[in-house]
Amino acid sequence: MNTEIVDRGEELDVAAPRCFCGKIARLQTSLIEANPLRGFHVCPNSSGRRKKGCGFFVWVDVEFPHREKALVSWLFRRLKELEKDVGHRQARERKLMGWLILSWDLVS
């Protein structure tokens, strides 16, 4: 597998492999519960599940130990719950603001 040193700004240089297309593979971080915060290289022509490019994929680091993996997964789940709660509260706030404005119009 051919590798090339890629300058990542303030981060350390990373030896990036070339994908099957011959392009420098893109470094990404997994945000799914099964492999939280793991780095991986993927074809630069891929864009998620629908477009896989040439199909190149390789993990950069080793998997977290079970305890750390469970903790990070729990933190991700909790973050999603809190984001959902904030969304509900913002919707309620907008609704209440609408009622407040309507009541001011009726009083005036």
Brief sketch in words of this structure:
The chain is 39% helix and 18% strand. It is an alpha+beta fold and 108 residues long.
Spell out the blueprint of helices and strands:
Layout: E1 3-6, E2 14-17, E3 26-29, E4 39-42, E5 57-59, H1 66-107
Antiparallel strand pairs: 1-2, 3-4, 4-5
What does this structure look like?
It is a single chain. This protein has one helix at residues 66-107; strands at 3-6, 14-17, 26-29, 39-42, 57-59. It is built from one helix and five strands; from the N terminus they run βββββα. The radius of gyration is 22 Å and the shape is elongated. Residues 1-12 have low confidence and may be disordered. The strands form two sheets. A three-stranded antiparallel sheet has the order 3-4-5, with no helix packed on it. The protein has a two-stranded antiparallel sheet with strand order 1-2. 7% of the residues are buried. It folds into two domains: 1-62, no CATH class; 64-108. It is of the alpha+beta class and 108 residues long.
